[in-house]
Specification:
The protein has 304 residues and is of the alpha/beta class. The chain is built from ten helices and nine strands. Strands 7-6-5-8-9 form a five-stranded parallel sheet, with helices on one face. Strand 6, helix 7 and strand 7 form a beta-alpha-beta unit. Helix 2 crosses helix 10, helix 3 packs across helix 4 and helix 5 packs across helix 6. The relative contact order is 0.16.
Length: 304
């Protein structure tokens, strides 16, 4: 039995197979429409979510399976004080596979240690979001055809952004990748990302404050929102939330083949005037998320 807790839980070769499977699902959805008949996915979301939860549900339904679970901690026995360990033991009696999102870092790992079914980390605090990483990788792979040699810029909240941390961890395994880390000083990537992932592995990177100083060199621009729920006080959030806004003027500085990704939801860090730019692929990214989660469910259930 396998789980997906960290992006590194799958080798580069396994990731390639997973992305190829997702690509085949995109091209031949009818071939997979009944693969999970008789199987149940539990979605245990202790935190609010639109895309990730509905993407998991759509993925399982597209495979012919069924879905059960809860959409907030308030609607589960967590409100009565039940531990994650006990909850997953109960869920293991009802479902064949579980996707869990939790505000506490490490909660998905704890669940996997006590679970009788495969566990997928759907986001744990500011730590990791591996299925968003799979979505991001599929978007890049499908639209760029490679990971090697790309210059990727991450812009916005790099301190609390678990999608950023997960994607950096995944991409450093490919040759020639380099990064531009674009953030105000207060929201720089954590030191463990810089020291343990980038410098320890001799990955080239620069840290800049102004988006205009980096955008012209990028193959990929990964925008993130400043996350109100990660701040300890409203004053700091209000001060930082409009620090970056990607608009038509900034897009004019970018390469013609640069892609703009965003894990969504956005607030106002990407102007709606950018939506019609062919380089803006964040809504395509959402669709790729369904295909890659379908591939992941099949792989962890041994049905691929």
């Amino acid at each position: 039995m396998r789980h997906l807790i960290e992006p590194s839980d799958f080798s580069v070769e396994e990731l390639k197979s997973l992305l190829e499977l997702a690509g085949d699902i995109e091209k031949n959805p009818e071939k997979y429409a009944h693969k999970c008949e008789g199987k149940k996915l539990a979605v245990c979301f202790y935190e609010p979510s639109t895309r990730t939860r509905l993407s998991f549900e759509a993925a399982m339904l597209n495979l012919g399976g069924r879905v059960l679970g809860f959409a907030s901690a308030d609607s589960s026995s967590a409100a009565k004080g039940e531990s994650v360990s006990d909850t997953i033991r109960v869920i293991s009696c009802y479902a064949d596979i579980c996707a869990i999102r939790h505000p506490k870092e490490g909660a998905a790992l704890v669940a996997s240690l006590k679970s009788g079914i495969p566990v997928i980390n759907a986001g744990d605090g500011g730590h990791s979001h591996p299925t968003q990483t799979l979505t991001d990788l599929m978007t890049i792979w499908s639209l760029k055809g490679r990971f090697e040699g790309l210059r990727i810029g991450f812009c916005g909240d790099l301190k609390f952004g678990r999608t950023v941390h997960s994607l950096i961890e995944a991409l450093i395994r490919y040759g020639g990748v380099s990064f531009s880390l674009i953030s105000p000083p207060e929201l720089k990537v954590p030191s463990y990302i810089r020291d343990e992932l980038l410098e320890k592995n001799n990955i080239p990177y620069t840290e800049v404050v102004k988006l205009e100083d980096a955008i012209g060199d990028l193959d990929i621009l990964y925008m993130t929102r400043v996350q109100r729920e990660r701040f300890f006080n409203e004053e700091d959030y209000v001060r930082m939330k409009d620090f970056y806004i990607l608009d038509r003027a900034k897009m004019a500085l970018a390469r013609e083949d640069m892609l703009v990704l965003h894990p969504l939801p956005r607030v106002n860090e990407i102007s709606t005037e950018v939506d019609d730019d062919p380089r803006a692929v964040y809504f395509k990214q959402v669709q790729y998320g369904v295909y890659v989660r379908m591939a992941l469910i099949l792989t962890l259930l041994g049905l691929a």
